[in-house]
Amino acid sequence: MTSPSPHPGSPAATRFPVVVVGAGPAGLTVGNILRAAGVDCLVLETESRAFIEQRPRAGVIEEWAVRGLEQRGLAAGLSARAERHSECEFRFDGHGHRFAYAELTGRHHWVYPQPLLVTDLVREYADVRGGEIRFGVRDVRLHDLDSDRPAVSYTDPDSGERQLVHCAFVAGCDGARGASRAALPGRTRISRHDYGIGWLALLAEAPPSADRVLFGMHADGFAGHMPRSPEMTRYYLQCPPGDDPDAWSEERVWDELQRRLGAADRPPLREGRLLEKRVLDMHNYVVEPMVSGRLFLAGDAAHLVAPIAAKGMNLALNDAFLLGDALVAHLTTGDSSGLDGYSDACLRRVWDYQEFSQWLSEIYHGTSCGDPYRAGTTLARLRRLFTSPAAAAAFAEQYLGTAGAY
């Protein structure tokens, strides 16, 4: 819950129009939009700069999100180094089925690992645009959010002293366990859906085995292949929720990947050393509204989409574009319409992506659920993608994030 600010006589009190809590894609994009418009802001991050530039996260960026970054001068690194994907492949019934979504829509995906995007964004914000940022802060607290004088306090990692920052607005971009979520009032609605499954997330020092994403629907569980670079590939293996990553030896991992992604008409996977193993319990949540007083949530602080549909970073960028532009309009011209409509505008895309994630989960996991009826209907849905142009077009629109009016 929000708390009253410390005594105004605090020796370390300062003021910024906006305090951004969290230096992920959402927070750094908001900060960059503000700095480009000449609006001062302070970004607070509990981790070090080195940590956020290496933290493993998503890598798929939709075309509309890339355009948004380009329009704001934030896509130079992406344009130079990202890989463009125009198709994916479903593997079921022992065969590979290529799905060329660019041929259907004229649109594509970009693959650019989140650590690279964060590195670009923090460099642009701090080193190029001169934005203020504090790394390694501790015990962040939000105060007086329902007043016109909110504040944020934190402990300085070097001096150990409490610092107090007055502001007009707080952008809460610090995830589900951060200070922003902790400051929400009890009446805030948080909707949650648990899939009851886990994914073993793997990063392999191995060249991609195909120039596209592969989805393996197998009776023993889903498997996924996601190219990240010419030398690195991310893989996923369905497993029980809460499973122990150490129970998965490299031999076991590669045996399962080869089997679940195997296809009679495709070569075996290229294997390599595993650099990362962690279990993700598949769940989604949505916070409504995404605003509480002068606090505006963005990214994982407001919603989570399990990596089933690779939508999380895209939703974070959408929030950041809308919030950054709305803050600039209010602070420079007094136009508050963007801030007034922020939550509703974000949630339209959020709920659309939530629904697609739930639908896609049935496609991925229906064949391994142990229910022959669900397995049969799942395979019927899959086959329809390759026999019905209407079904293929509808899937491509949702997969690319182009369906609906946002």
Automatic annotation (TrEMBL):
Residues 16-356 form the FAD-binding domain. Keywords: FAD, Flavoprotein. InterPro entries: FAD-bd (IPR002938), FAD/NAD-bd_sf (IPR036188), RIFMO-like (IPR050641). This is 4-hydroxybenzoate 3-monooxygenase. It comes from Streptomyces cinerochromogenes.
